[in-house]
Amino acid sequence: MAGYSYLRPRKSVTLTALLGFLVVYSLLPLAWMFFSITKTQSELLSSFGLWFSGPFALVDNLQQVITHDDGIFVRWFLNTIVYVVVGAGGATLLATAAGYGLAKYRFRGRGAVFATILGAIAVPGTALAVPTFLLFSQVGLTNTMWAIILPSLVSPFGLYLMWVFSAEAVPTEILEAARVDGSGEWRTFFTISLRLLAPGIVTVALFAIVATWNNYFLPLIMLNDPDLYPLTLGLYQWLADASGIGAQPVFNLVITGSFLTIVPIVIAFLLLQRYWQSGLSAGGVKA
């Protein structure tokens, strides 16, 4: 248009270099893992880490991971699935219901609940691990799956996200119209509100899934039965067993097992990416 000049955004060399460094810093460990899972134990320790070396041992490493120690890796994988489905799934459901209720209903003490949630977000999970262990030991829940599942059900950050998202994503007019038509609160929640909350639910679910899948410290202090270990603790046990005096090193199996551990999370992010992005951006623009 006449009278107007298009100004291109100025490029910052420093910012570009910093972002490039962060990209390399983030991808370098993944590249090292990609090359390492193709090597034998001897080649892993004697070759350059960022390139192939020796015979291509990926298939053999995968077979050894599945069969090593009577196939306990499969048991650890199934345990992790249980912890994620029950723990992260339950946390998502509770956060959704509680966040929706706090956003759409007015009741006495609502401000105190909000302050409590913000305070809970500020407390790191590791600070609560030991008190939780002492509490569970009194009721006999240590060294059981419930010792991992029950703490995973509590997600103050997820509740806060659903509270904020519900306030914008579910118009009050729709709820009032449903009440006029005779729909009960639970029916309205499950048939109408959940569909509108889908992007936020996926966002909270991804956070809960990643937190539960990568949970290490809580299982470390709660469990002593290897048959109950999640993948994180099981791989650490392999690493510890391979580092002792006279132990047989199985670092190639630890690295291959780590690769298998991150594959489901990557798949989940790729499949749910579009819902996750829309959930993060919802409410950012006013009509």
Automatic annotation (TrEMBL):
Keywords: Cell membrane, Membrane, Transmembrane, Transmembrane helix, Transport
Domain spans labelled ABC transmembrane type-1: 77-272
Localization: Cell membrane
SUPFAM superfamilies: MetI-like (SSF161098)
Pfam families tied to this protein: BPD_transp_1 (PF00528)
BP term (GO), one: transmembrane transport
The keyword Membrane is assigned to this record: yes
Family assignment from sequence similarity: Belongs to the binding-protein-dependent transport system permease family.
Protein name: ABC transporter permease
Top-level taxonomy: Bacteria, Bacillati, Actinomycetota, Actinomycetes, Micrococcales
